[in-house]
C-alpha cells in the first residue's frame, strides 16, 4: 500500500490501484495493519523482535498468570491488589505503546519513556507496599510533599498512556473535569480522593476490570485458539450458505457468535472478515457493502447474549441483579439487531440476483456435530454463572481451564485421526500466545477504566452530578427523548476507539446515573442497556468507525463509504434503545406472556419494514415516498403498543400488496 499523508480523508487511504481492482480483490494483512495503524491507537505498538520479543512475550504471559492467581486466591486488601494491578498496567503499557503513531524502530524504547514508565509505576508499587500505613494517615498523607508528588506522577503517567493507546476524546473529558475540580476543591483533597482512596483511580471501573474483565479477556484468548471461530463460520455456512446471498448471511451468523466471545468489534471483524468478506465479494456484493456487513455483525456480537463480550456479567455486578436476568432481557434487542442486518443483506441479494454457495462446496452439518465439544467452555461458563454456585471470576477461571482441556482434546483427536490440519491444536507456543494476547488486550481496557475512575472521582469530589442532571434537564426541558439524544451523542463520542467492556464501565459510571435520575426517570435496566448499546455503535459510526475501517481494508473499499453502509445496516442499534428506554416492555419489564409474544412478532415485522425502507426493494424497486412510509411503519411496529402495531401492520400489508400487483409479471431474482 502506498504511504498516505496524515491529512488525507479516510476514503483516500485505500490505494488508487487497489480501488481499481476487480470486484473480487481483497486486502492483505498488511493492508489491514496499515489502515488500523492510521486510525486505531491500540494498533500502534512498538516493534519487538528476536530476544526482546521473547522477553516481552513472557512478561505479558506472566501478568496474565498473576491476574488469574489473584482472582482465585488473593487475600490482599483492595488498596494493595489494585495498586499492583495499576502499576503492572503502566509498565506493560509503556513497553508496548510509543509516544506517537508510526514509530517503526525495531527493539527501541527511548530514555524518556523509560523514565516516565518507572516514575509513573513506582507510586503504585510504593502504595501497595505501604498500604496499611498510608490508609491510617488518611487525609494527612497529602501533608507530605513527597506523597503528593508521587500521586501526581501516577495520575499523569496514566493520562499520557491513555493518550497513546485509547485516544483523545476521553482524555479531553478527564482533563476538563480535573481542571474544574482543582478550581473548586482544595488541592490536597483532590489529590487524596483521586489517588489514595477508592473514589478515584481505584474506583469501581478499575476494580471490576481487575476482578472480572481481565479474566474474561484471557478466557476469550484461549477460546479463540481452540478453533471455535472457524467452527462458528463452518456452522453458519452449513446452515445458510446455500441460500441467496449466502456468504453475507454466513457473515451475520458467524460474527454474531464469534463477537459475543471475543469482546472486540475490530478484532472480530479482522478474524472472521478475512474469511467472509472475500466470499461476499466473490458472490457479487460491492466491497463497501461486504465490509459493512462484517463490521456491523461483528459489532453486534457484543450485544449477543449469553456472553455479550463479558458485559452481561458486568451489568449484573453494576445493577445488582442476577446474571440470568441480564441475559434474558438482552435477547429481544439482539434478535432485532441481527434480524435487521439479515433482512437487508437478503433484500440486497435479491435485488442483485445473487446466488448462494453451491452445496458441494459447503460443510455438512452432520460432520460438524462431532466438534460440538468446542462449545464446552462457553456452556460451563454460562452454567456456573447462571446457577450462582460460584463467583463470576471463579467461573471464568474454570472456563479457562476447560478451554485448555478442549485444546488438548484437539491434540489427541489430530493424532488419532492422523489429520494434516493441526491449526486448532493447543501447542505450548499457542498457550503462551493466549496469555500474551490476554495481557496486551487488557492494557487499553484497564487504562480506559482508570480514566472512568478519574471521571467518577471528579464528579464525586465536586458534587457535579446534580449540576449535570440540572443542566441536562434544563436543555431537554424535562423531555426524556431529548435527554436520551444528548446521552447518545455523549456515549458515541466517549466510545470512539474504546474496548467494549471498558466502554460500558465508562458509560455506567458517567451517563447511566443521569438517565436514572428522578428528573429524567428512565428505568435502571433500560438506562444501562441504552448507554451500552450506543457506546458500542461508536465502532461503526463515522467519523471514527474502527470496525468499519478494518472491514474496508480487507474489502479494498473506501473506509467512509463502508462506515456509512455499516451504520445503515445497524439501524436497529440506533432505534431499539430509544424504544426500550421509553417503554421497558421490550426488555421484558412488567409484561405478560401474551404481551411478550405480541412485542416479538410485531418488532420482527417492524425490522422487515425498516429493511424494506432502507434497501428500497421487495419484489422490485420502491419509490422514495413508499420507502419513507415503510420506515415510519417499521418504527410504529417496533414501539410496543396495540394501536401502533395495527397501523404498522396495515401499512406493511399494503406495501406487499402493491409490490405483488406491480411486479407480478416480473421475473423473480435467482433464489
Question: Can you tell me about this structure?
Answer:
This protein is mainly alpha-helical and 671 residues long. The chain is 72% helix and 0% strand. It has 31 helices and no strands. The chain has helices spanning 16-19, 29-39, 50-73, 78-96, 111-129, 131-137, 145-165, 168-184, 187-195, 204-224, 228-240, 246-262, 265-283, 287-300, 311-319, 323-352, 365-368, 376-387, 392-417, 428-462, 464-476, 480-494, 500-510, 512-516, 524-536, 546-555, 559-569, 571-582, 593-615, 624-638, 642-662. The longest helix has 35 residues, at 428-462. It starts with 15 loop residues before the first helix and ends in a 9-residue tail after the last helix.
Amino acid at each position: 500500500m502506498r504511504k498516505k499523508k496524515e491529512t488525507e480523508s479516510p476514503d483516500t487511504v485505500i490505494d488508487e490501484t487497489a480501488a481499481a481492482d476487480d470486484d473480487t480483490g481483497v486486502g492483505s494483512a498488511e493492508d489491514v495493519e496499515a489502515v488500523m495503524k492510521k486510525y486505531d491507537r491500540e494498533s500502534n505498538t512498538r516493534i519487538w523482535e528476536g530476544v526482546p520479543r521473547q522477553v516481552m512475550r513472557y512478561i505479558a504471559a506472566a501478568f496474565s498468570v498473576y491476574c488469574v492467581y489473584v482472582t482465585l486466591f488473593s487475600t490482599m486488601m483492595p488498596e494493595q491488589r489494585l495498586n499492583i494491578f495499576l502499576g503492572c498496567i503502566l509498565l506493560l503499557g509503556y513497553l508496548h505503546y510509543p509516544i506517537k503513531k508510526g514509530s517503526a524502530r525495531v527493539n527501541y524504547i527511548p530514555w524518556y519513556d523509560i523514565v516516565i514508565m518507572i516514575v509513573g509505576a513506582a507510586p503504585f508499587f510504593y502504595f501497595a507496599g505501604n498500604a496499611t500505613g498510608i490508609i491510617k494517615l488518611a487525609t494527612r498523607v497529602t501533608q507530605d510533599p513527597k506523597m503528593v508528588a508521587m500521586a501526581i506522577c501516577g495520575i499523569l503517567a496514566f493520562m499520557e498512556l491513555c493518550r497513546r493507546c485509547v485516544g483523545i476524546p476521553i482524555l479531553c473529558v478527564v482533563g476538563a473535569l480535573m481542571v474544574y475540580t482543582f478550581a473548586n476543591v482544595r488541592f490536597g483533597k483532590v489529590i487524596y480522593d483521586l489517588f489514595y482512596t477508592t473514589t478515584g483511580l481505584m474506583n469501581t471501573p478499575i476494580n471490576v476490570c481487575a476482578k472480572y474483565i481481565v479474566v474474561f479477556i484471557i478466557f476469550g484468548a484461549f477460546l479463540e485458539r481452540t478453533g471455535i471461530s472457524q467452527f462458528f463460520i463452518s456452522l453458519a455456512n452449513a446452515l445458510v450458505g446455500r441460500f441467496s446471498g449466502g456468504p453475507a448471511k454466513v457473515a451475520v451468523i458467524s460474527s454474531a457468535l464469534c463477537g459475543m466471545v471475543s469482546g472486540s468489534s475490530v478484532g472480530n471483524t479482522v478474524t472472521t472478515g478475512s474469511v467472509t468478506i472475500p466470499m461476499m465479494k466473490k458472490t457479487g456484493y460491492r466491497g463497501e457493502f461486504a465490509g459493512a456487513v462484517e463490521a456491523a455483525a461483528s459489532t453486534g456480537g457484543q450485544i449477543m447474549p449469553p456472553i455479550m463480550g463479558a458485559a452481561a456479567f458486568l451489568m449484573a455486578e453494576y445493577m445488582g441483579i442476577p446474571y440470568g436476568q441480564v441475559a434474558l432481557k438482552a435477547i429481544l434487542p439482539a434478535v432485532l439487531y441481527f434480524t435487521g442486518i439479515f433482512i437487508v443483506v437478503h433484500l440486497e441479494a435479491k435485488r442483485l440476483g445473487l446466488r448462494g454457495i453451491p452445496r458441494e462446496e459447503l460443510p455438512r452439518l452432520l460432520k460438524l456435530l462431532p466438534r460440538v465439544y468446542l462449545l464446552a467452555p462457553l456452556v460451563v461458563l454460562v452454567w456456573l454463572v447462571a446457577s450462582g454456585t460460584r463467583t463470576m471470576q471463579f467461573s471464568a477461571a474454570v472456563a479457562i481451564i476447560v478451554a485448555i482441556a478442549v485444546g488438548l482434546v484437539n491434540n489427541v483427536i489430530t493424532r488419532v485421526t492422523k489429520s494434516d490440519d493441526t491449526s486448532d491444536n493447543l501447542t505450548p507456543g499457542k498457550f503462551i500466545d493466549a496469555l500474551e494476547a490476554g495481557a496486551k488486550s487488557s492494557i487499553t481496557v484497564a487504562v480506559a477504566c482508570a480514566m472512568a475512575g478519574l471521571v467518577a472521582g471528579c464528579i464525586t469530589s465536586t458534587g457535579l452530578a446534580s449540576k449535570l442532571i440540572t443542566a441536562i434537564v434544563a436543555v431537554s426541558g424535562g423531555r426524556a427523548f431529548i435527554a436520551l439524544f444528548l446521552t447518545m451523542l455523549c456515549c458515541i463520542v466517549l466510545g470512539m476507539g474504546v474496548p467494549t467492556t471498558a466502554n460500558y464501565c465508562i458509560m455506567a459510571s458517567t451517563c447511566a446515573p443521569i438517565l436514572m435520575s428522578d428528573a429524567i426517570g428512565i428505568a435502571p435496566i433500560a438506562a444501562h442497556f441504552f448507554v451500552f448499546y450506543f457506546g458500542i455503535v461508536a465502532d461503526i459510526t463515522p467519523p471514527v468507525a474502527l470496525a468499519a475501517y478494518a472491514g474496508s481494508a480487507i474489502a479494498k473499499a473506501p473506509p467512509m463509504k463502508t462506515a456509512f453502509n455499516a451504520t445503515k445496516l445497524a439501524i436497529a442499534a440506533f432505534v431499539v434503545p430509544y424504544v426500550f428506554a421509553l417503554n421497558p416492555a421490550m426488555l421484558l419489564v412488567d409484561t405478560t406472556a401474551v404481551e411478550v409474544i405480541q412485542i416479538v412478532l410485531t418488532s420482527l415485522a417492524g425490522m422487515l419494514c425498516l429493511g424494506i425502507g432502507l434497501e428500497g426493494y421487495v419484489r422490485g424497486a420502491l419509490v422514495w415516498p413508499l420507502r419513507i412510509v415503510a420506515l415510519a411503519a417499521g418504527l410504529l411496529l417496533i414501539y410496543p403498543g396495540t394501536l401502533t402495531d395495527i397501523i404498522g401492520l396495515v401499512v406493511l400489508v399494503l406495501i406487499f400488496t402493491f409490490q405483488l400487483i406491480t411486479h407480478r409479471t416480473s421475473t423473480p431474482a435467482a433464489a
